[in-house]
Amino acid sequence: MQRETFQKSTDETFMSEAIKLAGQALGRTSPNPMVGCILVKNNQIIGRGYHQKAGTPHAEVHALSEAQDQAKDATAYVTLEPCSHFGRTPPCSDALIKAGVKRVVVAMQDPNPLVAGRGIQRLRKAGIQVDVGVLQHEAASLNEAFCKAITTTMPFILYKTALTLDGKIATETGDSRWVSSVLSRQYVHQLRNQYDVILVGSETILHDNPALTCRLPGGRDPIRLVVDGRCRLAENSQVLTSSAESPCIIATTKAAPVDKLSRLQKLKNVEIWQYDTSRYVPLKQMLKDLVCRGWISVLLEGGGRLAGALIENECVDKLECFIAPKLVGGNGPSPLSGLNIQLMKDAIELYDLQADMNFRDIHVTGYFRPH
Ligand code: AOF
Ligand code: ZN
């Protein structure tokens, strides 16, 4: 019994190292997952690796190349089931078998239908002991976007919003600079650095004229996506003119003025996605189109109308809310003006709630579905 407990905590310690390693590629691997691998022999780490970017070698390959011959009879700790398919790289399960590892500890099965247990099967067939499920929850939440996108072809959406303690995102006059604290706003740049896409509605562009870039040192700009059915945004909006390394996409419809579209199309770094609808952008189709391009995680930054529509369509996965200790009263807008539930018994309830005051605002996160 004691031995088992020791064994378990050793496995968790090494797996936790592997998860940390995987997280070094946060925001850099889409559409692939973040994966970390650690090779251990005689309780010593002899190889480490993580998947750095889609199309490049998988975590196991890096760890095996660091360990070289020592990999024989070692234990591999991998945060995701080693793959069994020939994708852009050959199967990692074969590489582990060839290197002669004795045991493989896996945090979670790969939800990719191309793998889905076949990697584990392959290792077991080769006589390798495989233990699955060590720190499974942590590994799954690191790859929550990948898990959703690979199984549903829809992206993972986080709605980030900031409101006053009395539930307003701006005063009655429309003034919103600033609701949340400096620290909260700095943290949002970490989210921008991590998510593939920032999504906003046209109202947000018209009112706030944000650039939607990532101002974190060493950060990278996400794709910026504006839902603008009638293409109302000004041609000198910052999303169109500011220098960003990633494109700005305007999702629009047949209601967009033709001459304006042709001018926007000529701008550097701007893409127009025109849908065959007469007024509203088909949101689910647009989200699927993101996944087709390899963009699997979306940071929804407003406004309340778009957020309401997406929540109503059950497209939003997570909420991250900064509640400032401020009161403004009046008829200022709410973060969910597009949602209008009539009875309290029908209210949306969140799961896995967490709250802290790390940014001098009340910071609440929750999920729209249990998991
Ligand atoms: C692993 N180790 O480090 C990663 C895995 O296009 P490819 O060849 O890179 O394959 C991508 C798929 O491989 C991805 O969807 C996921 O199922 C798996 N990712 N597997 O054994 C890794 N990144
Ligand atoms: Zn692999």
Automatic annotation (TrEMBL):
**Signal peptide interval:** none
The positions flagged as active site in the entry are E60 (proton donor)
Q: Where are the transmembrane segments?
A: none
> What is the species of this protein?
Desulfosporosinus acididurans
Bound how, and how many: what does the cofactor note say? Binds 1 zinc ion.
Q: Write out the residues that bind substrate.
A: S176, R192, L212, R215, E301
Q: Which NCBIfam families match?
A: eubact_ribD (TIGR00326), ribD_Cterm (TIGR00227)
Instruction: Extract the GO molecular function terms from the UniProt entry.
Output: 5-amino-6-(5-phosphoribosylamino)uracil reductase activity; diaminohydroxyphosphoribosylaminopyrimidine deaminase activity; NADP binding; zinc ion binding
Gene giving rise to this polypeptide: ribD_1
Respond yes or no to whether keyword Oxidoreductase is given for this record. yes
Q: What does this protein do?
A: Converts 2,5-diamino-6-(ribosylamino)-4(3h)-pyrimidinone 5'-phosphate into 5-amino-6-(ribosylamino)-2,4(1h,3h)-pyrimidinedione 5'-phosphate.
Q: What is this protein called?
A: Riboflavin biosynthesis protein RibD
Q: What GO biological process, any one, is recorded here? A: riboflavin biosynthetic process
What the entry lists under PROSITE patterns is as follows:
CYT_DCMP_DEAMINASES_1, CYT_DCMP_DEAMINASES_2
Kindly give the Pfam families that the UniProt entry links to this protein: dCMP_cyt_deam_1, RibD_C
